[in-house]
Design a protein that fits this description.
single chain; about 120 residues; mainly beta; Cyclophilin; eight-stranded antiparallel barrel; 9 strands; about 10% helix
Length: about 120
């Protein structure tokens, strides 16, 4: 699959697919582009998205830059820093999420204030 382009308001970020959760990766690839008005929870944005498929690997703590799917909540989440559930600088989701991709450089999100419109699509 090709790499991804993630737009967060006026910021354009590049992302790479991860090897984890191949069924959900394919399901996301099948519905691209996806877009939503994201809510913010610490340094996490999440928006509604329904994907067909079941997670194979889930984690509560994820690396910075992770794009993950929370199946029971039907949301896609972007993590770039600590959340209210974190005990250090490592992003921690409220519940286990299935990692799908990783944003290469999250620094453009450092000054994000509040929620944002998020769009994920195949990179050109």
């Amino acid at each position: 699959m090709p790499d991804l382009e993630v737009t967060v308001d006026d910021r354009t970020l590049k992302a790479e697919w991860l090897e984890d959760n191949p069924d959900l990766r394919e399901a996301l690839g099948d519905v691209l582009p996806v877009e939503g008005q994201a809510s913010r929870w610490g340094d996490e944005l999440y928006f509604d998205a329904s994907l067909d498929g079941q997670p194979e690997t889930t984690n509560e703590e994820v690396p910075v830059g992770t794009i993950a799917y929370w199946a029971s909540g039907e949301v896609i989440a972007l993590f770039w820093g600590p959340t209210p559930a974190s005990t250090d600088e490592t992003p921690k989701a409220a519940a286990p999420v299935a990692p799908l991709a990783r944003i290469v450089d999250v620094s453009p999100l450092a000054d994000l204030d509040g929620g944002a419109t998020v769009r994920i699509e195949s990179a050109a």
